């Protein structure tokens, strides 16, 4: 497996994905930070207190940045100011903004607070919440180059960064050595590759693929992930009333545990399919020239295989999240109907407690609700308006990157957002302060539980 191939984000190497591919391929070390609201607000609003991006002390002193030196001051008794200046390259910026003389500064009078300033505003002002700043450091002749990219959290490139660097949902900041990441990925597939080679030589690659590399159905894989979660935490069921932070549980199961399982299965499945495309199912003597010819001949099928892998990741995520919501409702003995067709062919994810109940015309029908589940929202939240009608609608998601104005737009059409507890607490999202946003804990305690007797 080539070093370039592990970080190959798109087919033509162009656009934002091409910039990522190039940076990860040449950088010796990479620093990635999930941007807080303050890290973006200086570029979006005038007169913000924070200028630039906050850098924690661990990263400031960790050797990634040039060493800080005490700045000469007129007042010898004043608290020291420590700073370092270095040149940064911003390929996404325009004109003179592409090359900046950047400063990292530590005002000791303010404790550990340190900021990276002198940055191109245009690279930050339009970013979604929980976007990323990526800094790559590499040598170019005698010079050390700091190349910087901002990755919008709502973009496909953000998904690929998470995928390639094994970034977990709760990640905030960290350093990576791309060469080490490549080595770890190669280690993951090495043992499986040996088994795969042996199966091909034995003429049993088809049977091997079915036994060792078949992707489970979405519902089955979701169940495996929940079983693993229950095992980790010593639980018997996914009862939201018995779990302190049920929204966080949903996020961990779908975005961490199941995601790791899915990647492992897909890695194997894709490897088997690729070998079968290039080498065939039956063992035969092939020279290097034969293999190269076959690779060229089968490029369309190989391209289709890579594309289907990307589409598979996206298509499975939403339906898998619905399975976890269903398991949690069942675990809490909350009555519901799933995917029931209501008027005009609308098919909401869940109706609590039932379609007959909310359509009865009785006064208590108003206690019922529609619960829609979407792993990521982007613009898809607008789809739920047609499901709503005059009924209460709650939209649950584990998405971090919803902007405040979109949350206000949802409030305008009567959509209540239900999110993991950690997303309400964090400084990287814009959920806090909106009346139509509540945690899954509050949804269970304040919306569902008071009505269980009536629904039952």
Defining traits:
456 residues; alpha+beta; At1g16640 B3 domain; Restriction Endonuclease; 9-stranded mixed beta sheet; 6-stranded mixed beta sheet; 17 helices; 15 strands; flat; disordered N terminus
What is shown here, in short?
With 456 residues, the chain is of the alpha+beta class. The protein contains 17 helices and 15 strands. Strands 1, 2, 3, 4, 5, 6, 7, 8 and 9 form a 9-stranded mixed β-sheet that branches.
Please tell me about this protein's structure.
This protein has 17 helices and 15 strands. The longest helix has 34 residues, at 246-279. The chain is flat and about 75 Å long. With 456 residues, it is an alpha+beta fold. The protein folds into 3 domains: 3-176, Beta Barrel (At1g16640 B3 domain), CATH 2.40.330; 183-324, no CATH class; 337-455, Restriction Endonuclease (3-Layer(aba) Sandwich), CATH 3.40.91.80. The chain has helices at 3-6, 15-26, 37-44, 57-60, 156-165, 178-201, 205-212, 218-233, 246-279, 288-297, 299-331, 355-358, 385-388, 404-412, 421-425, 440-448, 452-455; strands spanning 29-34, 53-54, 69-70, 81-89, 99-107, 114-117, 132-140, 143-151, 173-176, 337-338, 350-352, 369-373, 392-396, 415-419, 437-439. The model is unreliable at 1-14 (pLDDT under 50).
């Amino acid at each position: 497996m080539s070093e370039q191939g592990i970080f190959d984000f798109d087919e033509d190497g162009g656009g934002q994905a091409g910039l990522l591919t190039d940076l990860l391929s040449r950088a010796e070390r990479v620093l990635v930070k999930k941007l807080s609201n303050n890290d973006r607000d200086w570029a979006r609003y005038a007169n913000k207190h924070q200028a630039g991006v906050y850098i924690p002390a661990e990263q400031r002193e960790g050797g990634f940045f040039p060493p800080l030196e005490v700045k000469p001051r007129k007042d010898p008794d004043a608290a020291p100011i420590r700073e370092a200046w270095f040149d940064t390259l911003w390929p996404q910026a325009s004109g003179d903004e592409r090359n900046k003389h950047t400063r990292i500064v530590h005002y000791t009078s303010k404790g550990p607070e340190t900021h990276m300033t002198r940055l191109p505003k245009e690279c930050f002002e339009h970013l979604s919440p929980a976007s990323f700043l990526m800094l790559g450091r590499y040598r170019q002749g005698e010079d050390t180059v700091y190349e910087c990219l901002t990755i919008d959290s709502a973009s496909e490139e953000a998904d690929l960064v998470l995928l390639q660097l094994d970034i977990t949902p709760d990640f905030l900041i960290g350093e990576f050595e791309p060469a080490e990441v490549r080595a770890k990925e190669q280690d993951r597939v090495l043992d499986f590759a040996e088994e795969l080679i042996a199966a091909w030589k034995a003429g049993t690659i088809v049977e091997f693929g079915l036994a060792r590399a078949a992707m489970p159905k979405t519902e089955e894989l979701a169940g495996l992930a929940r079983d693993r979660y229950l095992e980790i935490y010593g639980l018997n069921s996914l009862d939201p009333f018995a779990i302190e932070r049920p929204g966080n549980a949903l996020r961990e199961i779908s975005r961490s545990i199941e995601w790791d399982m899915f990647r492992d299965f897909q890695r194997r499945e894709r490897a088997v399919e690729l070998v079968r495309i290039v080498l065939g199912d039956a063992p035969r003597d092939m020279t290097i020239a034969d293999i190269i010819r076959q690779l060229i001949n089968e490029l369309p099928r190989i391209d289709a295989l890579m594309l289907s892998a990307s589409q598979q990741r996206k298509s499975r995520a939403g339906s898998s999240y619905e399975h976890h919501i269903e398991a949690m409702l069942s675990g809490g003995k909350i009555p519901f109907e799933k995917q029931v067709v209501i008027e005009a062919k609308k098919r909401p994810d869940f109706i609590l407690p039932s379609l007959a109940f909310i359509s009865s015309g009785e006064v208590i029908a108003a206690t019922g609700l529609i619960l829609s589940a979407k792993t990521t929202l982007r613009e898809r939240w607008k789809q739920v308006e047609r499901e709503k009608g005059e009924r209460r609608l709650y939209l649950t998601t584990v998405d971090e990157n919803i902007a405040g104005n979109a949350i206000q737009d949802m409030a305008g059409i009567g959509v209540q957002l239900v999110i993991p507890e950690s997303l309400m607490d964090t400084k990287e999202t814009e959920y806090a302060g909106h009346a139509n946003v509540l945690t899954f804990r509050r949804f269970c305690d304040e919306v569902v539980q008071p009505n269980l007797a009536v629904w039952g």
